[in-house]
Amino acid sequence: MLTKLEQQKLFPLASKDNTNKDTVIRVKDVQFGKEPIVIAGPCAVECEEQIDTIASFLHKNSVPVLRGGAYKPRTSPYSFQGLHEKGLQMLSAAGKKYNLVTVSEAVDEHSLKQVAHYCDIIQIGARNMFNYELLKKVGKFSKPVLLKRGMSATISEFLTAAEYIIKSGNKDVILCERGIRTFENYTRNTLDLSAVAAIRELSHLPVIVDPSHGSGRRSLVTPLAKASLAVGGQGLMIEIHNEPSKALSDGFQSLDFSTFKNLLLELKT
Amino acid sequence: MLTKLEQQKLFPLASKDNTNKDTVIRVKDVQFGKEPIVIAGPCAVECEEQIDTIASFLHKNSVPVLRGGAYKPRTSPYSFQGLHEKGLQMLSAAGKKYNLVTVSEAVDEHSLKQVAHYCDIIQIGARNMFNYELLKKVGKFSKPVLLKRGMSATISEFLTAAEYIIKSGNKDVILCERGIRTFENYTRNTLDLSAVAAIRELSHLPVIVDPSHGSGRRSLVTPLAKASLAVGGQGLMIEIHNEPSKALSDGFQSLDFSTFKNLLLELKT
Amino acid sequence: MLTKLEQQKLFPLASKDNTNKDTVIRVKDVQFGKEPIVIAGPCAVECEEQIDTIASFLHKNSVPVLRGGAYKPRTSPYSFQGLHEKGLQMLSAAGKKYNLVTVSEAVDEHSLKQVAHYCDIIQIGARNMFNYELLKKVGKFSKPVLLKRGMSATISEFLTAAEYIIKSGNKDVILCERGIRTFENYTRNTLDLSAVAAIRELSHLPVIVDPSHGSGRRSLVTPLAKASLAVGGQGLMIEIHNEPSKALSDGFQSLDFSTFKNLLLELKT
Amino acid sequence: MLTKLEQQKLFPLASKDNTNKDTVIRVKDVQFGKEPIVIAGPCAVECEEQIDTIASFLHKNSVPVLRGGAYKPRTSPYSFQGLHEKGLQMLSAAGKKYNLVTVSEAVDEHSLKQVAHYCDIIQIGARNMFNYELLKKVGKFSKPVLLKRGMSATISEFLTAAEYIIKSGNKDVILCERGIRTFENYTRNTLDLSAVAAIRELSHLPVIVDPSHGSGRRSLVTPLAKASLAVGGQGLMIEIHNEPSKALSDGFQSLDFSTFKNLLLELKT
């Protein structure tokens, strides 16, 4: 049940006990761990026009962080795997043009170097949370890391994965709850908001929530986004697309612009 | 993934499609499905003094519904099993004295008759959600039913359990999400708030949340209560006790009076 | 992790520690806990001809126990619910005609009396394993009980459910592993054969396996039946049907006569 | 539920439909997919003496494959992480001395090259089954791959992971079931023997079973090993240690020599 002693043994650096204040991670003008931060963008960068359209929309709506995958860990080797370096260049250009912080996923040493070069934040995805070698490697970089919870990771294992990164030298770790795998199949995953409240108690690291992957259903994203902040989440990661029905991946869980604007409005009430 | 057709086949009476408005269930002055309703009380009725103290406290804090178990389905046959009819009498007396709506769990035909006699709402617990004979029987009573989700029940099975009750004649069913069983063991169960948002879409029945059983940890109850309402939950069921450390069951997840008052304050902000 | 002390506290009567030998339960000429026993039959008794055909087939193939549901706990209230007393009469008649031990499920007090009257063994199904009132009630009968594991029950809870029955007066409990609910959806449930090995260590009660419900796929039944005996299971419960494609319930997991004969052959090799 | 069409789309190369016979993978004198093969050895190579003692013991008992971890993906960064290249050298030396096939885990590009250099079979562990970049990389090597199922991977995802390897050029993939993560906590994982039977139907690749990690309990290894072969498993991977109580990792699930010899005897009966 994770006693104080076990916490100290498993994740001393990530544990709340070793610090008297929560960590705030500053990326340009964005401060994770202070005000709730919204990250939005497409599952995958598809072309210049797409990412420019989305970045422009985010800029107009004061959303400060743009996400977009260029290295996509897809279940099937026959699915679209991302645009790789070209995608990162497009993402970076859009970020600069609209003054947005950018985040993209790295999946191995090669992509790690590229993401660190082109983006402001390096994402480690759920499928690689148990990939300890990648965690050690990202720990050598000086850019903040957005670490997603593995779909079968306990809260304790999630924090111990963060420990790997911090122990390797990079203390700027933003945690992201994105749902766990359970018997329930109406939703793609079961978003575990208890984990967010638990992490706020156990660790000084900021924790955000991804209700898009967490539910896998467009219609559930807005209520879950509101709940994510209510439970103590310090930010959100939302999949949006200018034309969800034409998205190359995960369109079924992406919000269109109009729905996303409503979500932003609802968060303010 | 539960198409419209499957919904119609599995739970036509509980489905949203068959009505143009959400159900409001009135019990005395309390209306489930309208304003968020807070239900609170001890896991088990232990003695007159205990339930009177708690009922008085709820009355002073404008909490309208008192819960208290008299028939306790305990994992071990050697654990305290509740005070049975005497417990219901104590609960009923406290409810009348402080003008509170009362709810208690029924576990078979015998207790069903008693709970229906002494209380305003009949609770069917998580362990009996798949007990279809009990569902059919409670469907013959004219008192509202508070149906808790089984710990391994899918959303679809949960709504189909409600269908059993409605089909048997009792349309006043209040659903209660209380966590599902997963690999995560930091929490007692994994509270599935996606299910609440899903049920609001799929069904016209009111749905409330029990973050006490949902998390099994006192410190997580308040943040989860806030998230439960934010996600669309229409009420809360919270375990409280005048002296949690001396509770005969589930003390570790019960709030003391002071913490519960803070929870009520936080819900208002 | 279930220490000796916890076992003693939770299920002293079901625990191996309190006896120096495994329990053998004798029903007519059948001895559970001695030689592997095969139970077979349809999910539901559908008509006299069906159950007679199946019973005759079992008799010819030296399968000593006939199963057949008359009270069916179905997910949907709109599904076939069984023939009730008439079904039990048909089952009993077939059992007598072909000298087979009979077993059928009871789901409440009423059906309990009927099953005890017409059959040799009373089955408590997975959906009612946490229905402690039913466990207490079946504990008052003098016929052996076949207790199936709840789909979300831990091994410890399964044995504690048996404890409820024994503590109420009936020590003849046969346990049946039938799969647990997990994220895997290729199979209907995940058959937990580790639980069988664990129960052989922890308890003196006989334990059998139901690979039909455990897998929900006809083609997996035979290999899982072999594994069930190899791991230490003391019997099998197999769904068979003279015309699986026309079965009123669970036909997709029922074996036809020819496949079942092959299964019996394979068990002998 | 994985129709033929979905199989063809997700894993055409791993699917049984595209070949008329099961794959046999030959490594020296060992043929996976023909006779049941036993792999045994310590969780981690700890020193020359340890691995020599174990290799000698295996040789004497006609066990043809020696396992031993040199790159250990441990939950905690503060746990023993393996001897790396030195460990592989020791493993390789012991393998040569006693004429044993060797297998060890690779966790990234660096260790991949080393394992491919020193060992006969490259293991990809459960934590890296979703690490698609590693799968693509191991697909470029010409040595057979032992791919373990991820602890939250469906059968379909497991076979699709194999597809990544085959599509990258390496068709010699041995699958290994090692348990999935469920709510049951008596065992470390829930060994899913249905998956073995399912894979025998769905794929032409050989599949073996690891009951040591699958159960996490020494006393359950032997019965589960027997069940693994009975269900159709084409081999076993067993953790053994000359002094389990002094093992640097996973000693609690390792068999001592005497117990392992009994296991081998039981497999023959």
UniProtKB/TrEMBL annotation, chains A, B, C, D:
Alphabetical GO biological process terms: aromatic amino acid family biosynthetic process
UniProt keyword terms in alphabetical order: Transferase
NCBIfam families, per database record: DAHP_synth_Bsub, PRK08673.1, PRK12595.1
UniProt name for this protein: 3-deoxy-7-phosphoheptulonate synthase
InterPro entries on file: Aldolase_TIM, Class-I_DAHP_synthase, DAHP1/KDSA, DAHP_syn_2
Domain of life: Bacteria
Domain DAHP synthetase I/KDSA: 26-266
Enzymatic class: transferase
Keyword 4Fe-4S annotated: no
Originating species: Proteinivorax hydrogeniformans
Entry's Gene Ontology molecular function annotations: 3-deoxy-7-phosphoheptulonate synthase activity; aldehyde-lyase activity
Enzyme Commission identifier(s): 2.5.1.54
